[in-house]
Automatic annotation (TrEMBL):
Main subcellular localisation: membrane
Highest taxon of the lineage: Bacteria
Compartments where found: Cell inner membrane; Cell membrane; Cytoplasm
Keywords per UniProt: Cell membrane, Cytoplasm, GTP-binding, Hydrolase, Membrane, Nucleotide-binding, Receptor
Biological role: Involved in targeting and insertion of nascent membrane proteins into the cytoplasmic membrane. Acts as a receptor for the complex formed by the signal recognition particle (SRP) and the ribosome-nascent chain (RNC). Interaction with SRP-RNC leads to the transfer of the RNC complex to the Sec translocase for insertion into the membrane, the hydrolysis of GTP by both Ffh and FtsY, and the dissociation of the SRP-FtsY complex into the individual components.
Subunit note: Part of the signal recognition particle protein translocation system, which is composed of SRP and FtsY. SRP is a ribonucleoprotein composed of Ffh and a 4.5S RNA molecule.
Database matches in InterPro entries: AAA+_ATPase, P-loop_NTPase, Signal_recog_particl_SRP54_hlx, SR_rcpt_FtsY, SRP/SRP_N, SRP54_GTPase_dom, SRP54_N_sf
Name assigned to this protein: Signal recognition particle receptor FtsY
Span of domain SRP54-type proteins GTP-binding: 176-377
Length: 380
């Protein structure tokens, strides 16, 4: 009897142990599950944060498409009426909508004329606008195209003109590389120098700036602010002093410091062209005393909002200095960006960069396709 009781007691204890063990296992599984869920949640939170951060960064640096005003060919007013669909009995009963139709228009003289006008409105100039539309028509005249196809074709033709001139500022092993920055007052020279200095600095280059527009105290102060922001020394001279003498001193400092780049700001008074020409020529003469190959680049800064006037500025500055490349500023928000196509078509000068805002990071390399797409309002 006692044996039976012991056996029963053992069985009960065994059952209790088994229950305890299964409870422990269940608790361990629950904990593991909770940990897994927490880890997954943490992963999801991190991914969401990364997306938010990326979106915030993207929002800070608007793309050219967002910041430029497109001349988007608005070809919708002459849409053909959608053909009456034979929807069938069931379709009519169910009130099903007719499938969407893509409007196609014939690439004829009328259409080409409309496109030319649009391009001229964007300040592309008559000659270049004609070239673009003529290329568009080649082999396609009389064909029916959708608006998207027309935009793509137009963007592709513009890209073809721009491709050969899209070249970053060439860098030479020569130290210091001297970059003379020219352009009319207000075109964005000072801002561009600040942005360039900041970008080269960030790329590990040692940069020196010379505030060569010694007549305008405000210009010198502004350059100092940009220099501070970029962490780059700015050499200045008393108001009204000889810019060539400042350029000479700056060249000496850049050489002594082992600087990679010397950016020289210049005056932009075109009112007295021969004075400015003499001033620029003198700067070049004196810096050549220290380096015969200087300046290595003469950057002409142009303001996109001046439209066709930019063409005239290139002509004038080519006469008074040895322009080696262009920077087009203020492309953000202008509807006159087409002038850049005319410049590429007429002068073939390299376009090194474009300005798309007033902040230090708002200087971008020139990407012809992005530019052409933004100009015509085409999304790839
Ligand atoms: N929106 C926009 N504004 C710009 C851009 N580049 C320059 N600016 C603005 O244009 C104005 C003139 O720019 P500056 O850099 O002072 O022009 P500058 O050629 O040095 O002119 P001066 O100092 O008068 O010789 C300033 O208000 C700049 O902030 C750009 O790419 N986009």
């Amino acid at each position: 009897m006692a044996e039976e009781a012991r056996a029963a007691e053992e069985a009960r204890l065994e059952e209790e142990r088994a229950e305890a063990e299964s409870a422990r296992r269940a608790a361990a599984e629950r904990q593991a599950e909770e940990e897994r869920t927490a880890a997954e949640q943490a992963k999801r939170d991190a991914a969401a944060k990364a997306t938010r951060d990326a979106e915030a960064r993207a929002a800070q640096t608007p793309t050219l498409r967002e910041s430029m005003t497109p001349v988007a060919p608005d070809l919708t007013e002459e849409e053909q009426p959608a053909p009456q669909e034979k929807r069938g009995l069931l379709g009519r009963l169910m009130g099903r909508a007719a499938p969407k139709t893509v409007v196609r228009r014939t690439l004829d003289d009328d259409m080409l004329e409309q496109l030319e006008e649009l391009l001229i409105t964007a300040d592309m100039g008559v000659d270049t606008a004609l070239r673009v539309t003529a290329n568009m028509a080649e082999g396609r005249f009389g064909k029916k195209l959708s608006v998207a196809e027309i935009k793509e074709l137009m963007a592709d033709e513009i890209t073809r003109i721009m491709d050969p001139v899209a070249r970053p500022l060439p860098l030479y092993p020569k130290k210091p590389q001297v970059v003379l920055v020219v352009g009319v007052n207000g075109s964005g020279k000072t801002t561009t120098i600040g942005k360039l200095a900041s970008q080269f600095r960030a790329a590990g280059k040692k940069v020196v700036i010379a505030a060569g527009d010694t007549f305008r105290a405000a210009a010198v102060e502004q350059l100092q602010v940009w220099g501070d922001r970029a962490g780059v020394p700015v050499l200045t001279a008393p108001q009204g002093s000889d810019p060539a003498s400042l350029a000479f001193d700056a060249m000496g400092k850049a050489q002594a410091d082992g600087a990679d780049l010397l950016l020289i700001d210049t005056a932009g008074r075109l009112q007295n062209r021969s004075d400015l020409m003499e001033e620029l020529a003198k700067i070049v003469r004196v810096i050549r005393k220290k380096d015969e190959s200087a300046p290595h680049n003469t950057l002409l800064v142009l303001d996109a909002t001046t439209g066709q006037n930019a063409l005239n500025q290139v002509k004038v500055f080519q006469e008074i200095s040895d322009v080696s490349g262009l920077v087009m500023t203020k492309l953000d928000g202008t509807a006159k960006g087409g002038v850049l196509v005319a410049l590429a078509d007429k002068f073939g000068l390299p376009i090194h960069a474009i300005g798309v805002g007033e902040q230090i990071d708002d200087l971008q390399p020139f990407d012809p396709q992005e530019f052409a797409d933004a100009l015509v309002g085409y999304e790839r």
